[in-house]
Design goal:
Elements lengths: L3 H10 L14 E3 L6 H11 L2 E5 L16 E6 L4 H9 L5 E4 L13 E7 L6 H7 E12 L5 H8 L10 H10 L2 E15 L2 H10 L13 H14 L2 E14 L3
Parallel strand pairs: 2-3, 2-5, 3-4, 5-6
Antiparallel strand pairs: 1-7, 6-8, 7-8
Helix pairs in contact: 1-7
Length: about 250
């Protein structure tokens, strides 16, 4: 097995391009929620006339849909992801545009009967409601409260309080913008890290877990995590996820 320094260097060297987690195969594993978001998305897309995927990353999840709608668009805020998403989604006929995560969205009112978002950084509720047609649907799989608090505390200390998005609060905000919440589900899932390289790459990629993380600044904590993995075979954390589906009411 590579030593601590080599593993940290390996985790630092992995590209952050796109939102592809295949590098983690065999090095980390996250249990999936029971609702199978990718299948739900593919089903909704097949029935839509015009659809928008928000904060699409490199288009990894959207690319899995079987039958794209006649009009398909996607937004992404991080410029290096744009050519990746455009190349990946070209076969679906998708238009990929750069737009801030919090909006505004560069689309006309009532332009889409489906808006989707997998793990959005923020929910631009006013913009979601604006671009949805009356009767249109927002479908999203999101990060919940206290996700990976064990890993955050291992890096930043046990005093750190859980943070994150509350499903009930998001549902209330959706309703305040004229949307009817038709589905709200929650899940807690195991996240297992099998070497410290996976921890380093994860913290570089999922930046909100430990804001400002660098392997240099957190080397002592990383060594402690490395020792836990050597002793126990893994470092165990937990993610929280929720699914929200909301429909724009017909006036």
């Amino acid at each position: 097995m590579p030593d601590f320094d080599a593993l940290v260097a390996e985790g630092d060297a992995v590209s952050l391009e796109g939102w592809d987690f295949s590098w983690f195969d065999g090095r980390a594993h996250e249990e999936r929620p029971p609702w199978r978001y990718s299948e739900m998305l593919s089903d909704r897309m097949a029935r839509a006339q015009a659809a928008l995927d928000l904060q699409t990353g490199g288009g990894e999840v959207l690319a899995e849909i079987a039958h794209p709608p006649a009009i398909l668009a996607a937004t992404e805020s991080w410029e290096p992801n744009l050519p990746v998403a455009r190349a990946r989604l070209s076969s679906l006929g998708a238009r990929v545009v750069q737009a801030p995560d919090e909006g505004p969205l560069p689309f006309t009112d009532s332009a889409f009967d489906l808006v989707s978002a997998r793990l959005p950084v923020v929910n631009p509720w006013s913009e979601i409601a604006r671009v949805l047609t009356p009767g249109g649907t927002f479908l999203s799989h999101q990060v919940g409260h206290a996700t990976n608090i064990e890993l955050t505390r291992a890096m930043m200390g046990e005093h750190i309080q859980p943070a994150g998005r509350c499903p009930e609060h998001e549902a209330e905000t959706a309703r305040a913008h004229g949307l009817q919440v038709v589905d709200l589900r929650r899940a807690t899932c195991r996240v297992e890290f099998y070497d410290v390289a996976a921890v380093v790459h994860f913290l570089r990629k999922v930046v909100w877990t430990v804001p400002g993380f660098t392997s240099v600044g957190y080397r002592r904590q990383l060594r402690t995590v490395h020792e836990i993995i050597q002793r126990d075979g893994l470092f165990l954390s937990h993610s929280t996820r929720f699914l929200i589906e909301a429909r724009k009411q017909v006036l």
